[in-house]
Structures are given as structure tokens and as C-alpha cells.
Amino acid sequence: MEKFKEEIKTCLQNEPAFCTAACPFQLDIRDFMPKIQRGGFNAAYRTYLNAVGFPGIVSALCGEPCKNVCPRRLKDEAIAMKLLEKAALKYARNLNPNQYNLPPKDKKVAVIGAGISGLACTLRLAAKKYQVTVFEKSGRMGGHLWDLLPPEVFLADIERQFAYESYTLCLNREITSLDELDFDAIYVATGAGGTDFGLQRDERGAFASNKPGVFLGGELCGRDIIEAIADGLHVVNAIERYLKAGSMNQPEEKRETRIQLNPEWITPLAPVRPSEGKAFTQDHAVDEAKRCLKCSCDVCMRHCDLMRYFGKYPKRIGEEVEVTVHPGTLDGNGTVATRLISTCNQCGLCKEICPLGIDTGEFLLHSHRAMRENKAMPWVFHDFWLRDMAFTNGEAAALCRLPDGYQESRYVFFPGCQLGASDPRYVTESYRFLRAHHADTALMLGCCGAPADWAGDDSLHGEVIAKLREDWISLGKPTAVFACPTCKQMFQRYLPEIEGVFLYDLILELGISPLKDGAGETVSVFDPCASRKEPEVQQTIRKLAQQAGFRLEPLPYEGKLARCCSWGGQVSIANPSFAREVVKARITENDYPFIAYCINCRDIFAAAKKPVYHVLDILFGLHDSGRVPPTVTERRSNRISLKRQVLSEFWKDEAKMEQRENNINLHIAPQLKEKLNREMILETDLEAVIAYCESSGRKVFNPESGHFTGHLRIGHLTYWVEYRPTDHGFELINGYSHRMSIEEA
Questions:
Q1: Class of domain 666-738
Q2: Which of 53, 75, 475, 536 is the most exposed place for a label (fewest CB within 10 A)?
Q3: What rounded mean pLDDT belongs to the chain?
Q4: Domains 108-245 and 513-620 belong to one CATH topology
Q5: pTM of the predicted model as reported, rounded to 2 decimal places
Q6: Where is the Cysteine-rich domain positioned along the sequence (predicted)?
């Protein structure tokens, strides 16, 4: 966590846009553009006025340095910023400056030179109610502007901006020595070739000279006309610092940005051309403004599901997590980011896309562990998954075995906990294939420990890892063959001594004739997030799909940019609305069927009615793309069935059928089954409740409906059932669970 705190200090979230950094006035484009986009020309004009001081002059003379850095120039054409500025002036309802009712200040400032830089400084100081006197050696104000613009243009703008401000203008008054002046501060803006009174710039301070209280700027210092105006506006900050604190050594603010933007993510949009001479209509201005990317380092916000869902950048996430893990409230209640911490699906995309490689996901995983250690993480977020992992690694479903006649093996097939739970044939067909080519291949059925890792339960996770290592050693330390990218990822992280390969790479190497004929069908390969660092298997899947006759259509996010299907982190209980949103976003990336090689991806998309194949469907001809995934109860039954099948086929060992704990024949309507599955309620748990109610007599009878109601606490949860007896057992009318305990009399 400390490493993340240091990383996050480098976050580029608040860096200025490219155009803002290039603009001498540092116009806030992220404030200006949205106002134009919604047709708010008056509001846009205010933003522009506050930045440039003299909007009529600047819009006429600006050389548009922003166009040289606009990322759109790399795709189509830079934003026509100058035309948009002019549109703000043309369509604003009120061009008058703001009027501020501030008390006068007792400090006096002299401005030498009534050119535009000196006038800009005077304008800002006068608005702050300083006593300003301008000395101009000629008989007119404006300086170099007389050579660049018609006087009716710039004089009108100057007059308008000074409408509410008071200052003293001394024309035909040349200052030959600063000793003539008795002022608290002086700004020398005598223009190109003007006198500098023998002063030099002090690079330690913004606009500072080597004489206390005297500042230099504008064309005198080699600036062009636009930069001179900006100098006049910005020097006011340096003058105020001196007047208040006597300091002149504050460095000038750097106009730069560290933002990095990938042009490949820019969608081309044709530039808008003015239809009325050289000016935009209001509609055209709005359309051109909508082309603006409002550049910011928001790549994480645009591409990370979690940050977009919560609307929070890494900096804000870090702050909220800090007060959650280390609460500072009087009652010690740190719950600000509990759900946010539990919503990260650990896909790793945040680090991949961040220009600085900030790993917010890893930070949230460590935060999860810290919350678990503090006993502050709600157990309900992970209870089901930890119970499911315990079942998978228990006697009913787990297996670790060498083929008969072998003392050790070259390979061990580790299919993971979900492949056989979805359909036992995925495992039996794959293992049969491996045994046909490598007869000594061992088999390990179990869970890789991901649920405990994602739950932040280090102790439980350590137990799972230790058992996996022990079983691997007992098999002769073979190479692990993975069907699940998450399993391979977990082994690489926590069991790096175990060499691993993907089942699909072996299949491609050994050769197989796919039994599903793609016959030219167009599909898209969906890379699971756990395959992000596995480019070889990503290409293998595509080769196998093409061998089967499929045409491949790329997805917007694949390969290194693979995004989670919603399974990662097992967030569906902690934040079901987030999980649903993620699934919807994935399945609408295009209209073609998907080919998945993570069974969780396959089943999640199928449950959402997205046509999807698992690659093993294609290789072994198992199912069509619309197979309905099993319920949580059926997944447990499939694991039991899988163990029984492999023992029977490959070891001629007829495993004894485990007697059901509750010998109850329970009928559940299909619609109710769907509801129980959505709520992660096992039908076997409800059978246990009914068995308890029937044996103990603790049940309530409703004579109007003829239904019984009862409850039982199993583990952390209290389960309720509404049921009725039938001739052949019981019919479940409803079932649900909650975290409350019921105190029995």
C-alpha cells in the first residue's frame, strides 16, 4: 500500500490539456469547450474573458499555438479554436466585464508603458483595487497594437474592459530613472527596444528583476504580442506576492503537461467548416466544439470498469481507501470505500493502460487484505465463494491421482474448479486427449485458491497453496496443464516453481481436427483478462478457430487490453449492479458470437443470452453456442459427477455414491430455480432447512395457503423456506436468506 501511495503522487489526473499548456493564457479548455458544446456562448465568453483580459484583441491576433499540439491533428484536423473564440464573442449576450465591489487597497503600483502588456497588468491590478499609475512616453495608449489592428478594434476593447476600473494614465510622460518613482512596486513594460533601466531578469523569480519590487515583462523581454498580454496578466501574481510578503523568488509557473495520449484511441471526426464567410454559425460552433477531446489523463476512467462506474480517479480512490482502512472518525467507523474495494475484479487493465503503470487493482487487493485483518470487511461478500472453494477441495469433488502403473508423470492436468462444474465433458474429453498422447498424464481436480486470494483471506489462501504444492510433489513435480487462464495466473504468482502450459497450446502442437465446423461463420475471440500476459495462447485460440473454419472479427478490447467478463474478484455479490453493467458492456461490443477459452466468460455470456462457444465446444463437438449454463446447485452436482466419471473411466474405480445428507424429494419450479441461482442459494441448503423443520417440528402452518414456513442458520446465513408437502415429497414455494440471527426461545 505504501508503494501505491508513492505511485499515486505521480498520477497525471490534474495535468493541463495539451492546448492549455501551449496557450500563453493557459485557457482552461475543459471549462470552455463544454459551455460551447451546449450552446452556452455567454458562459464560454466569461471563461475566455477571465483568461485573456482583452478578448477582442486576443481573438484577432492569436496565432493559435494550441493547433500545433492538438491530438486531433494526428487523425483529422486540429480544433478551430480561434473560430470558436470568435463565436463566443459574437453570440454572447453580454460582453461587458464583471464588476467587483472590493474595498480599495493602500498599495501603489507604477506601470511603465501603456502598451498592451502594461495595460493588461493595469487591468488586473485595478480590478483588485490597487492604486495604479501608468506612465506612457507617447501621447497614446496601445503601443505595438497600432501596427497590428485598426484602432477602432483594440481601443473599443480596451475601453470596454476598463469600464468599471479606476487608474491614473499619464501620457507624454517618459520615465528616465526609476528613482523618479515612489511606489510600492513597479512593472516595466516599455516594449520591444524600450528602456530596461539597466535591469536584468532574476531567473529565480517570476518576472523579477535584480532590483527589489521591480518586475519586467512583455515585448521588452522578447515576447510576441500575445505573450506580452499574458505577461501583463500573470505578473500581477508576482507583484501581489511581493506586496504581501516581500518575496520575489517564486519561480514562474511552467507551462507544460505530462499527459500522454494514444492516437489510436481517437475516433476520427471531420472538421466543421464555416459556412458564413470566416465565422461559425451557432450550430457549427457547437458541432466543432464537440470534436474536442477535452484532453486529460483519463485513460483509466475511460477504460476501467470500476473507475468509470464509481466516477473516481486513482487519487480519489486512494484517499477514500485510506480513511476506510485507517478510519479517523471518533467511532472508528471506516466504511467509505468498503464496497468499492470489494468491486475490483482484479483484471489488471488499469496498470496496462496507465502511462505511469499505476496498479490500482493491486492496491485494492492489498486494501482488501488489510480490511480482512481488521475484521472490517463484510464476510457476506465472499462467504458463498469460500464455501464453494471448500466444497471443490473437499472429499466430494477433489482428486489427485497418477495413472495406474506410473510412479510419476510428465504432465498433470489441472482443469480448475469451474470447467467441470459447467460440464464434466469438458474435463473428460480433454483428459482423454492428453492421455492418448501422454499416457502418464496425472489429474488434479480442485480450486487454485483464487476465491481466498480475492477475499483477502491470507491464512485460508496459504492453506490451499500449501496443499497444491504437496499434491504436485507427490506426482513427481510434473508440468501443469491449465485450461483456465486464472488458474495459470494464480500458479505463476504463488507457485512459481511449478512450470505450466495451456491445454490449448498442447492441442495445437499435437494436432486435432475440430468437430465443430465453423463453415465461414463470423465470430470474435474474447480474451479473458487473465490472459493479458499470455500472447501465445491468445494466438493459439485464433489459430484453432480458423482451423475450424470460423472468420474472426476483432473486438475493441482484446490481447493486452482484454477486459473482465465480470467474474474476476467474484464481485457479483458485493456489487451485483456493477456486475450486470460489466456483462452488458462486454456482450454489446459487437453482434457476432464469441469464442471464449475461460469457462466463466463462456457461462456468464450465455446466461446473458449472448451466443458464445467455449473453444472446447469447437474442438470436441460438445455443444452449440446457446447452451444454458448450470445453476450454482447444478455446478456442485457436476463436480461430484465429474469425479465419479474419471475414476470409473480412467481408473476403473467405481466411486461410491455419497448418500444425500437430506433424503428429501424437493420439487422446485423453473422460475424459482432461476431466482435461487441469482441469489446464490443452494437448493441443498433449502433441503436441509425443510429436513430440520420436519424433524424438529419448528415450523409455522398457514391454514389459508396450506403452506409451512421455517428457518435454519447454516454457517453465517439464516435460510427461510415456504413449502408444502406433496404425495412425492415437498414443493418449494419460496426461499431466501439473510444475515440476521434469530434468537430461539
A1: alpha beta
A2: 536
A3: 94
A4: no
A5: 0.84
A6: 411-491, 523-588
